[in-house]
Amino acid sequence: MFENFFVKINDLRSSEPIRLSYATCTKHCQNLIRFKTALFRCYIFNVFVIILLSGYCYQSTLAYFPQKNTVLLDPCEKCKITADSFRLGLYRTSRGKHEGGDAHWEENKLNNYLDSEIRLTEVQEHICIELTDDKDQCHSAAEELEEHFEHWFFNERKQERLRNQKEGETLQEYICYNRSKVCCPSGHFGADCQPCRGYPDHVCFGRGHCSGNGTRFGNGKCVCHEGFGGQDCEKCSSTFKSEGEIEIKLNGKIHKLPEKCYQCDVSCASTCHSSGPKGCSVCKDGYIWDTTDGCIDVDECSKKELNSCKHSSYCVNTLGSFKCFRKCLETLNTCPKKQSTIELIEKCSKLQADLENRLHLKKA
């Protein structure tokens, strides 16, 4: 029987066309047709499964390897946007699907739905849907935090209701601070969420921010705003001058701080006692003290001994310094005069250099 069966298979694989109606086929031929039909169906099914798995793997890969231009979020930021998206899902499903009709019946149905696994599934299925740039990172975080979301939904959320809190009010704190431990409350930093300097009311005296604030990273040092310095940003930086004074009480002690800090003039070498060039303690190189105007620019081009420009070049004075440019040939249309701008002289010098290079190549 099997020998005849394989003979039929070989016959059908030959290049010669075989015309047989299904009704007139032998029993072996009918079995062969059924066998080949089953193989074809199995092949189609496998292709379909491979396509589905490829799509799933591609989407999963995107979640862990975001698109090229996407800015990677730190663990705390990623957790927060995911928790916020989950909370938005709670809001979208807060009225359920029972609006209209008998109010009493509707209320009973709604209460059952609000605490149901059906609602949780709907929220999870649509999480991150409102995001664009960070959607992939949100999905990966949602997968990692799935168990924490479920525990909060069936346990902590009910405690909110008992405390008359808004639904989802404790979600971010529970998920990101207490469970996944990737964030700290505002005003705290580091692995153990230590308080920042001056917490809670005067962190860095309001003139800077705490390094690692709100995350499990950083060292808690004050990163001062421009113009401020010191361990707690309690004074002006070296190139800024204080103006006015305020008092702040911290830990039972009165601290005297500058009301504001302004930058010393560009002509000052380091410190200053007031604003403008007349407030400089010492003039910067390239400037000289004038009893009327304070630190003024030195014109190095006015005297040969003050600049190093050669005879065949232009000397152009700049604030605190000077520049040398090669002179142009008189035949050039862009040949500037002494009063020309630096931009024109630079252009002319480049043209001159290009012309000289061409002449040199011709001679060679």
TrEMBL record:
Q: Which GO terms describe its molecular function?
A: calcium ion binding
User: Which Gene3D superfamilies does this entry report, sorted A to Z?
Assistant: Laminin
Q: Which residues form the EGF-like domain?
A: 192-234
Keywords associated with the record: Disulfide bond, EGF-like domain, Membrane, Transmembrane, Transmembrane helix
From the record, give the transmembrane residue ranges: 43-65
Q: State the source organism's domain of life.
A: Eukaryota
Q: Which Pfam families match?
A: EGF_CA (PF07645)
Disulfide bond annotation, renumbered to this chain: 224-233
Give the protein name, as stated in the record. Cysteine-rich with EGF-like domain protein 2
Naturally occurring in which organism (per UniProt) = Sarcoptes scabiei (Itch mite)
